[in-house]
Amino acid sequence: MTELRSHLEWRHHFAAYKAFDPMADHLHRWLGDLFHRYHREVVRYASRLVGDRDSGEEIVQDTYARLAARSAQAAAIEHPKTYLFTATRNAAVDFTAKRAVEWSYRVDVDDLSSLALTEDPTSDFYRRQRIARLAVVLNELPSSCQAAFVMNKIEGRTHSEIARSLGISVSMVEKHVMRALMHCRDLMRDDDAR
Q1: Residue 10 sits in the same domain as residue 85
Q2: C-alpha neighbours within 13 Å on the C-beta side of residue 151
């Protein structure tokens, strides 16, 4: 039912494009085909990145709207599935950063005294944005790999403590942490290059 609702909302967005752009009909068919082929798969992917299906649906809807805004350029994309999943990941990063900013406005009155008045808002914004990107990138990894990375790099646990906690070997912990580090490094480097 959600897929049908999303498809109907998506079709509604194109009514305005068709009236002004002769290429809109071709774009409409192209995006319709892309939507029908990969919608369920890309929603699952987005949901995994951000943690819930409703947000995943919202991200996918936003991704399709962004594709529609590209007008005739969108139909010229050489690898549409790859482009769709990359655009979805970028939309998930934006969504997560926006959600983090929204949550940052929610202040616990008891915690106000602990806030430093000399914090640089610009560096704080960039730090939060990188943390949001890291969260999305980590969600692309298997849960055991995520857990090992978080326990090691964020909680400061040793490999042997993590191995006991997860019930795996120390060697497997090392592999998980290394895989997560390489995955994060590669994706963050790709994002920084843009």
Answers
A1: yes
A2: 20
Query: Measured between alpha carbons, how far is 60 from 85 in angstroms, rounded to an integer?
Result: 9
Handedness of CA 187, 189, 193, 194 (dihedral sign): positive
* 120 and 99 within one domain: no
Are the C-beta atoms of 43 and 53 separated by less than 8 Å?
yes
Do residues 11 and 80 share a domain?
yes
Q: Extract the tokens encoding 104.
A: 């940052």
The 10s digit of each residue's pLDDT in 151-192 is: 888 888 899 999 898 888 888 999 988 888 888 777 766 666
141 close to 183: Cβ distance less than 8 angstroms: yes
Last residue of a domain, one of 104, 127, 152: 104
Distance CA 59, CA 42 (A): 10
pTM of the complete model = 0.50
Asked if residue 82 and residue 43 are part of one domain, the reply reads yes
Could you tell me if 67 and 20 lie in one domain? yes
Give the number of other Cβ atoms within 10 Å of residue 96's Cβ. 24
CA distances in angstroms from 183 to 58, 160, 175, 177, listed in the order given:
26, 22, 12, 10
